[in-house]
Amino acid sequence: MSSGTHDWQPRRWPNDPEVVSDLRSWLAGEGHREFYAIDADLRGADLSGGDFTSAWFMSSNLADTTLRGIQLADAECTEARFTRADLSDANFAEASLDRANFVMARLARANFTRATAMDSNFQGASLAGATLVKTLLSGANFTDADLEGCNFDRADLSEADLTGARIDGTIGLVRGPVVVQTEPRRILLDGSDLEEWFRNHGSNMTVRPPSAPPDSVDEQPRIIAPVPVDPHQLPDVTWTSSAIHVDLPHSQLNRWVQQLGRGPEHLWEIDVRNVASVQALANSISPGATSLAEAIRHVRAKVLVFTKLEQLGVRNRPVLIELLHTLPTALAARKASGTSLHIGLVDLSADKADVVIAELGRAPTEDVVEPITIFDYPTMP
User: Fold this and answer.
1) Measured distance CA(228)–CA(357) in Å, rounded
2) Which of 40, 50, 153, 234 could form an SS bridge with 172, CB 3.0 to 4.6 Å?
3) H or E segment at 345?
4) What per-residue string of b and e applies to 180-205 under the rule 16 or more CB within 10 Å gives b?
5) C-beta atoms surrounding 376 within 10 Å
């Protein structure tokens, strides 16, 4: 991360004075290690060559910016607007790009390895020579995009729209089905039909059969199983099962308190907004624990609730990320030992709940045998 590094400066600062002030403070090493520009206006900037690894640009406006060679690995760019931006040679590895807007952007040779860009819009964009290995692109719009020479190996292109896209020289094993035409009628192809369409358009891509299991080496099974919650039919929670409850409403939390009672052996509630470190969080869960995973594995409660979670993300994002990456393996370990645990993540906006679910999906999977159920609650009191 380049925070506090003075050998890089923007070639052109953003037009917005408030964003300029934030950027200067960050470059001087003040505040967070990661740069935060949530719902910010960065238009007018030339940030070429800057290292913004793990930065937050959620819902920010970067239209018409110059960002050649920028480092945005592991960055949070959900719903960011990169319309007509020059992102040649940019690094988006493992970045969150769901619903981002790349219309008419220049993305030649950009790296999207393991990024998530579901429902993103690449209409008319130039991605010639880009790397999209193991990238989640389901529902993405590539209408009229230049994809010549792209590497899509093990990318998920399910429901992606390639209408009018140039795909000469593209390679890789991909998941379908793919939209290949929208007018006069929508045509969705998969399997051998899609492979034939690829060949007829100069592509060398092959298609993974719809029934094919995940590759044991190159493609881990998805351990996160999000379940949207119907507000009129809340999940029937049993205290012998385990699950993570994202954006758990206070009304549901209060019902659990009435059923179980508060306390370290029943429902244990932790306000995380001012947690200073991962070790401090571990000690608040299980005093004496040497790690966060150990703390969660050995907590005696049936329900462990983390409140003020969004504030933790703003004040100490590394602790939040470590918590989210630890939860699936810790729950798997409890299940293997015959003990269950429900995790409640409280006080999240709808946008931040989506980010939390995406981050849970990036958690290590080596020790997780069965998918972890994630209850995704709508906005409720």
Assistant:
1) 12
2) 153
3) strand 342-345
4) beeeeeeeebbeebbbebbeeeebeb
5) 16
The angle at the Cα of 27, spanning 22 to 32, to the nearest 5 degrees, equals: 70
* pLDDT, position 1: 39
- Name the stretches of the chain with pLDDT < 50: 1-6, 216-221
Can you give the pLDDT at residue 381? 63
Q: pLDDT tens across 248-284, in order?
A: 998 888 888 888 888 878 899 999 999 989 999 999 9
CB count, 10 Å around CB of 57?
A: 28
The overall pTM is greater than 0.70: no
- The separation between CA 214 and the C-alpha centre of its own chain, rounded to angstroms, equals 20
328, 372 Cβ separation under 8 angstroms? yes
Separation in Å, CA 85 to CA 104, 128, 192, 238, 247: 8, 15, 36, 50, 34
Chain centroid to CA 240: how far? 30
Whether the Cβ atoms of residue 159 and residue 176 lie closer than 8 Å to each other? no
Q: Identify the CA nearest to 75 among candidates 104, 112, 105, 47.
A: 112
Per-residue pLDDT at 47:
96
**Of the options 2.160.20.80, 2.130.10.10, 1.10.10.10, 3.40.50.620, the CATH number for the domain spanning 1-219:** 2.160.20.80
Q: Strand, coil or helix: what is 26?
A: helix
Q: Would you state the pLDDT for residue 211?
A: 61
Structure tokens at 61: 């406006």
Residue indicated by tokens 């602790």: 319
Domain residue extents for the chain: 1-219, 224-376
| Cα dihedral value 352, 357, 363, 366, nearest 10 | 170
| pLDDT computed for residue 210 by the predictor | 66
Both tokens of 365, joined, read 């999977």
State how far the Cα of 57 lies from the Cα of 71, in Å rounded to an integer: 13
Q: Which residues sit opposite 188 in a β-bridge?
A: 179
The CA distance from 177 to 175, in Å, is: 7
Task: Look up the CATH architecture of domain 224-376.
Answer: 3-Layer(aba) Sandwich (3.40)
Give the C-alpha separation, 128 to 130, whole Å: 6
- Distance (Å, rounded) from C-alpha 327 to C-alpha 304? 11
